[in-house]
Inverse folding.
């Protein structure tokens, strides 16, 4: 059985969606750890309730990003996970970590990439005036939200939407897309071919 570990910075509703899918047997894996950069993250409570080991690396207690990332790399290696899931992890992952876990680290982003990478994706979508928005699960590479795309799900943008109402519609789809991508990975059904991801049929 595959081992997965999750990185989260806040509320952790995407992490919860993965935990729920694991509990329902929709993902064949064991969640072996939650790593967070934020000691106040509600994701910590969710992990403890599910019996998942928690590692807190308080970003602001470190003298530099390099020092933080060195400990993060060590914590990730200690998990011995097959897959690392960035579920609302609000920091850009440094080069050493990207290289160490290439093809084994995925992220959920609340926009239809390559549109609106980075922070406040839903606000970017509303301000740009797009009519369709959504979410993307993708592999993490050295860029910002730029790696090969595994799954996208879309929602309409309504006339009176603001950032919050659009975010509420998108997160429903995030909670479907992320567990689905994790399940595919754990079933060895994801093949990366350059920029593209092929989803293999069930064996
Ligand atoms: C989600 O919208 C995720 O896509 C983004 O940050 C939010 C985190 O929400 N990166 P949660 O912590 O999973 O509830």
């Amino acid at each position: 059985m595959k081992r997965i570990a999750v990185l989260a910075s806040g509320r952790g509703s995407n992490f919860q969606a993965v935990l729920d899918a694991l509990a329902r047997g929709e993902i064949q894996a064991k969640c072996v750890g939650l790593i967070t950069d934020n000691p106040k993250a509600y994701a910590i409570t969710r992990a403890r309730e599910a019996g998942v080991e928690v590692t807190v690396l308080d970003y602001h207690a470190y003298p530099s990003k390099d020092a933080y990332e060195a400990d993060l790399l060590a914590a990730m290696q200690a998990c011995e996970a097959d897959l690392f899931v960035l579920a609302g992890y609000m920091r850009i992952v440094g080069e050493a970590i990207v290289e160490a876990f290439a093809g084994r680290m995925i992220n959920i982003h609340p926009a239809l990439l390559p549109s609106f990478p980075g922070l406040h994706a839903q606000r970017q979508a509303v301000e740009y005036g797009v009519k369709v928005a959504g979410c993307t699960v993708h592999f993490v590479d050295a860029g910002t939200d730029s790696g090969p795309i595994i799954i996208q799900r879309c929602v309409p943008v309504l006339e009176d939407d603001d950032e919050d109402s659009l975010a509420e519609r998108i997160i429903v789809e995030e909670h479907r897309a992320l567990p689905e991508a994790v399940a595919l990975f754990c079933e060895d059904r994801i093949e990366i071919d350059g920029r593209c991801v092929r989803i293999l049929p069930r064996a």
